[in-house]
């Protein structure tokens, strides 16, 4: 489980996701840096890009993923 993404906005969002109970898996395969997934529901995860075009958009997608899983893991405050 890692949250050491090169982009600061993405790294911060990943850290908040982990605190909310999500799982971050580093993959480093092509343009894919890793995956964000929910351990409770086991549904489709979110692919995290190595170098997103807009790091703010990627961070917002991470926050939205966590928001859509409020009953999973710990709730984000």
- Rounded to the nearest angstrom, the distance between the terminal CA atoms is 21 Å
Q: Name the poorly predicted regions.
A: none
Mean pLDDT: 86
Q: Give the biggest sheet.
A: 3 strands, antiparallel
Q: What is the count of helical runs?
A: 2
Number of strands: 3
**Rg over C-alpha atoms, rounded to the nearest angstrom:** 11 Å
Number of structurally distinct domains: 1
Q: What are the SSEs and their pairings?
A:
Elements: H1 8-19, E1 23-29, E2 32-37, E3 46-49, H2 55-67
Antiparallel strand pairs: 1-2, 2-3
Explained architecture:
- Helix 1 (8-19) packs parallel to helix 2.
- A hairpin with a 2-residue loop joins strand 1 and strand 2.
- The chain has one domain (8-67).
- The protein is built from two helices and three strands, in the order αβββα.
- The two termini are 21 Å apart.
- The protein has helices at 8-19, 55-67; strands at 23-29, 32-37, 46-49.
- The protein has a three-stranded antiparallel beta sheet.
- The mean pLDDT is 86.
- 32% of the residues lie in helices and 22% in strands.
- The chain is α+β, with helices and mostly antiparallel strands.
Task: Jot down its keywords.
32% helix; 77 residues; alpha+beta; 22% strand; 3-stranded antiparallel β-sheet; globular; 3 strands
């Amino acid at each position: 489980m890692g949250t050491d993404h090169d982009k600061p906005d993405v790294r911060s969002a990943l850290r908040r996701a982990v605190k909310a109970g999500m799982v971050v898996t580093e993959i480093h395969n092509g343009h894919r840096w890793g995956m964000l997934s929910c351990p409770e529901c086991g549904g489709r995860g979110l692919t995290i890009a190595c170098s997103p075009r807009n790091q703010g958009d990627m961070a917002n997608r991470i926050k939205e993923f966590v928001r859509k899983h409020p009953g999973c893991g710990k709730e984000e405050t």
